[in-house]
Write a structure and sequence with these properties.
The structure holds 2 protein chains of 2 kinds.
Chain A lengths: L1 H17 L32 H18 L5 E5 L5 E5 L7 H15 L4 H10 L19 E6 L2 E9 L3 H13 L3
Antiparallel strand pairs in A: 1-2, 1-4, 3-4
Chain B lengths: L27 H16 L6 E5 L5 E6 L7 H15 L4 H8 L18 E6 L2 E9 L4 H13 L3
Antiparallel strand pairs in B: 1-2, 1-4, 3-4
Helix pairs in contact in B: 1-4
The chains are: A alpha+beta, B alpha+beta.
């Protein structure tokens, strides 16, 4: 008798769960994430940026900093996987920027897009609140930019030390050195 | 009546002199100079290395990775530099401690890298940071390159 009750109970539970009595959350028509784009553009990764090229990128960024008299810009250059290839901290750079510049470079490489994109998306509102849950390599502050040569992403540059807008100016100057 | 035993005590071995004071954080220019010297020495081996310089707080000041160096050498090289700077002694001291049966050396802090290759950088008799090298056949090879970096600032 007990066995029959247990079996009946299990069957009832299965029926309740399968009808979706635990309600699905309906889609919000205002949510831009609901659309399904046709294409998936994928910039291929290339051979990791070599040290000499990384220094060239960093030098271009430094030159831009010097030109603008922004003396405290940390510069990080990473390979396609986000691992560090080159890093320099000018004497006047703040400590926080040591890690932030590396994080920006890493995110730009691993997500294959400028970190500016994430900053702007989060600024758009609640539908993009999910972004910071993506993981520890996510950073939503502009200043990280992919380094693309011959249509392939060979690395990324991250800059931190000023305002985000200043960081990104220097970062883009570095990435542009290879164009 | 209990006789209290008088134990003849061995005099405790005199402790080593205290390590030097910290100086002002290593400058970018000093860091580049040290790394350049370390690279020159490292290239003699034919192995591929990473080179890191940190300041007394253990924060990264300068980093270079030779093309094709082992991926793990990034964290290990930075870790050796961090160990040497924050403990005011070569990372080899931790290796030696563990090799002679003192495993607690490796457990004092999760960031410790108990392998030779991290050495404090000295300027005017003060510790201004440390250099860390990784990628060689063993810690001693890394250590030789790191020492060349240290010597460059003398």
């Amino acid at each position: 008798m007990r066995r029959l009750m247990l079996t009946a109970g299990a069957l009832c539970a299965a029926l309740v769960l399968s009808t979706g009595a635990f309600a699905q959350v309906p889609a919000d028509p205002n949510n831009p994430n609901e659309t399904v784009p046709d294409a998936q553009p994928n910039t291929p990764y290339g051979e990791p940026i070599n040290l000499e090229t990384a220094k060239k990128v960093a030098a271009a960024a430094s030159a831009e900093s010097a030109k603008r008299n922004w003396a405290g810009m940390c510069i990080a250059v990473v390979g396609p996987s986000g691992d560090l290839v080159y890093f320099e901290k000018p004497d006047l750079c703040q400590y926080a920027s040591v890690t932030i510049s590396q994080a920006k470079a890493r995110a730009a490489a691993r997500y294959r897009r400028p970190t500016l994109v994430f900053e702007r998306l989060i600024g758009k509102g609640a539908f993009f609140n999910y972004l910071p849950t993506l993981g520890s390599d996510f950073i939503a502050s502009r200043g990280g930019n992919p380094i693309v040569v011959g249509g392939k992403l060979i690395g990324a540059i991250g800059v931190s030390g000023g305002t985000g807008s200043q960081d990104d100016t220097i970062s883009q100057a570095g990435a542009a050195a290879l164009k | 009546m209990f006789a209290t035993a008088v134990h003849a005590q061995q005099p405790a071995a005199a402790p080593p002199p205290p390590p030097p004071a910290y100086g002002p954080p290593v400058t970018t220019e000093q860091a580049k100079k040290a790394v350049a010297a370390a690279i020159t020495e490292a290239k003699k081996s034919g192995y591929l290395f990473t080179f890191a310089v940190v300041d007394p707080s253990g924060d990264l000041v300068y980093f270079e990775k030779m093309d094709g160096a082992p991926t793990a050498s990034n964290d290990i090289g930075i870790g050796k530099a961090w160990t040497a700077a924050t403990f005011k002694r070569p990372s080899k001291a931790f290796f030696d401690g563990m090799e002679t049966g003192h495993s607690f050396f490796g457990q004092l802090h999760p960031r410790i890298v108990a392998s030779a290759g991290g050495i404090p950088l000295m300027v005017d008799g003060k510790i201004v940071g440390a250099i860390g090298v990784s990628g060689g056949a063993n810690g001693l090879m890394d250590n030789g390159a790191a020492q060349a970096g240290v010597d460059a600032l003398k």
